[in-house]
Amino acid sequence: MKEFMLIFIGGSSAADLSPDEMQANMQQWFNWVNDLKAKGIYVSGEALLPGGKTVQGPKALVTDGPFAESKELVGGYFIINAANIESATEIAKSCPDLPLNGIVEVREVMKFD
Predict the structure, then answer these.
(1) Which residues pair with 64 in a beta bridge?
(2) pLDDT digit string (tens) for 68-107?
(3) What does pLDDT average to over the chain?
(4) How high is the pLDDT of residue 11?
(5) Which of 3, 46, 70, 84 gets the highest tally of CB atoms within 10 A of its CB?
């Protein structure tokens, strides 16, 4: 098995959904995580708070940010186990935010052993 990172971009936000819709979406996320855990696929993951800092360039310039449009912001990530990128991509297709125009970037984790 290899590890893959699923990077969640855009999708639902409190501004876009009613409280009931937000609660239903969160329940879908909990159900998805529990299903992945039961199958031995889920390794770890976290949601990310908005805001932060950006460090850039040879002088390590620090600015507030990121300031991308909300549809482009990374909202969180999972690390999962999958046989290959095709399998990881199939797993990503069940992300609860896809129907809300979310994006899941699938990347293999490079191991340094």
Answers:
(1) 53
(2) 555 567 889 999 999 999 999 999 999 999 998 899 999 9
(3) 89
(4) 78
(5) 3
Beta strands 103-108 and 74-82, pairing class: unpaired
Helix (H) or strand (E) holding 29: helix 19-38
Candidates 46, 43, 47; CA nearest to 4 is 43
Task: Output the CA–CA distances (angstroms, integers) from residue 105 to 4, 22, 78, in the order listed.
Answer: 10, 22, 11
- Contact by Cβ (8 Å): 97, 11: yes
pLDDT of residue 93: 97
Strand partners, 41: none
Say how many C-beta atoms besides its own lie within 10 A of residue 89's C-beta: 14
The one-character DSSP state at 61 is E
Is 15 or 95 the better-scoring residue by pLDDT? 95
Let me know the angle formed at the C-alpha of 48 by 73 and 99, rounded to the nearest 5 degrees.
55
Angstrom distance (rounded) from CA 77 to CA 27:
17
Residue type, 105: E
pTM: predicted TM-score of the whole model, two decimal places: 0.85
